[in-house]
Amino acid sequence: MPLLDKFGPMAAQYAEAEQAANNPFSVVLDLVLSPTEAMVNGRRTLLLGTNNYLGLTYDPDVIARSTEAVRRFGTGTTGSRIANGSYDGHKRLEQSLAEFYGRRHAMVFSTGYQANLGIISTLAGKNDHLLLDADCHASIYDGARLGQAQVTRFRHNSPEDLAQRLRRLADAPGDKIIVVEGIYSMLGDSAPLREFAAVKREWGAYLIVDEAHSLGVLGDTGRGLAEAAGVEADVDFILGTFSKSLGGIGGYCVSDLEGFDVLRVACRPYMFTASPPPGNIAATLEALHQLRARPVLRRQLNDRGRQLYAGLAALGFDLGPEPSPVVSVILPEPQAAIEFWKRLLDAGLYTNVSLPPATPKSLSLLRSSVSAAHTPGQIDHALGLFAEIGRAMDFIPAAQTRRAAASLA
Amino acid sequence: MDNSVSEIRDVIFESMHALLRHPVELTDQTKIATDLGLDSVAVMDFVMEIEDKLNVSVPLDRIAEVQTLGDLVETLHNVLSNA
Asked: Which ipTM score applies to this complex?
């Protein structure tokens, strides 16, 4: 198979994982019971790695709107917005998103990946410059590769390094477009957005913030990091996804930029793909309504995130830099992360394994994400399993574990 | 910017020795991914260090073309010459 020879080392790693009893890359949720529980390998399993931040996937109103839309509009749109027409729900969801953000324009994409791919590749033209945070998601890097702009990578969360790189580009023609994220999906850390906004103003650049993991998580009304940091006026484009807080699938971009709608006929990942199906659009609309109407979900979510982060820190685990709904344990090497993950799954707890090169600084991570639907008791149960298995595998010292257990009691 | 090829090579080889921590013989022909085991993100992180030391930004598409240490020396020399 000479065609696939280039994947040699990767294939060996994958084959090794396949042979293991539980492979993190091919786990199957046989039956999902609720936003927090599923049947895996015949066992009732606590889900702590779904990005289902607000737990809305089983909300009765979300399900009702979705099934109603399927009955009225059918299962799929069978075509693209441009070639085959928009549905009423697409327009209503775009209006609802624009209104939520207080912006003039909104554009809906079929996935969050495509929103990033489309907007980034289209906005930055041949003579323009994209400046991407080093830890930005693969979809942002792929969008940069699809486009024709020159791409510069700056140090993660470093406004100083961004400014330095803008300085080097000072005499280069073309627009400068900066891309950062609200919450980074691997370690759960946030961008220092006030400082980035100041750099953006100083250099006359444009600023894009991907709020995929911060929509419904940060900000007084859940709009994300730009709202929390009080710099929404400096953010020219907000990108996001429906597949986390809103429990569906799809992506969006909102902006106040004049002439924004021309992107609908310039942006290939928007034009040359089927539009999101009616049931999904209707579910997303209702979930957005729930996000706005029930701020208690955001409080519960962040409380659970802090509970998990504080609990794991007290046990002595090495964690990401700040609490958020994403909590990652840093482990010494990939095999350790996979083994820890397997033992947790065998004990009825589902988390995620994140390995290099998908992780920053070649870290091996056991990644968890909490939901507003988790009870404090479920988080305590998860902490108990982390303690037991972490101790058995010598990732945390026994003495510290006892002290932590006492302080948690 | 007055960096000769040999000065750039010194900076790159010295930084790579420091990164790898164990003694390895480096030449212009050394392949960064297959010989030294750096993945795509590690290569970009390594280039960032070199960028700081030489006060230059290398566009990502130029980094994507780099396979050997010699390619990297040449790329930096070209970027610096056109800066």
From this structure: 0.91
